[in-house]
Design brief:
The structure is a single chain. By secondary structure, the chain is mainly alpha-helical. The chain is built from 3 helices and 2 strands, in the order E-E-H-H-H. Helix 1 packs across helix 2. The radius of gyration is 16 Å and the shape is elongated. The protein starts with 7 loop residues before the first strand and ends in a 32-residue tail after the last helix.
Length: 92
């Protein structure tokens, strides 16, 4: 991964490495807290790409170790769905 601060880490939400580093320096020391701070991982891919990159940055910055590092929880549905597809009573 490039050390260039302008490098896009989360393409879906257009979050740069610099924004993630700023979040880390402001106290975000987990993938989940970085996600909440800068929205990395909240786009269409749900963090399938940037989640691993954020983990690498946390390790490189020394705020996590390989023993303490955990991935963010996957939240379902992973793909968009319509309200109608969730079911319900058609008689109402």
């Amino acid at each position: 991964m490039s050390n260039d601060k302008d490098t896009l880490v989360c393409r879906c939400e257009e979050v740069t490495r610099e924004e993630i580093l700023e979040a880390i320096h402001n106290g975000c020391h987990t993938v989940a807290s970085v996600k909440r701070a800068v929205r990395a991982g909240m786009g269409a891919c749900q963090g399938r790409t940037c989640g691993r990159l954020i983990q690498q940055i946390l390790l490189a910055e020394g705020v996590q170790t390989t023993e303490t590092l955990t991935a963010d929880k996957v939240r379902f549905p992973i793909v968009p769905c319509s309200v109608e597809s969730l079911g319900g009573d058609d008689n109402e």
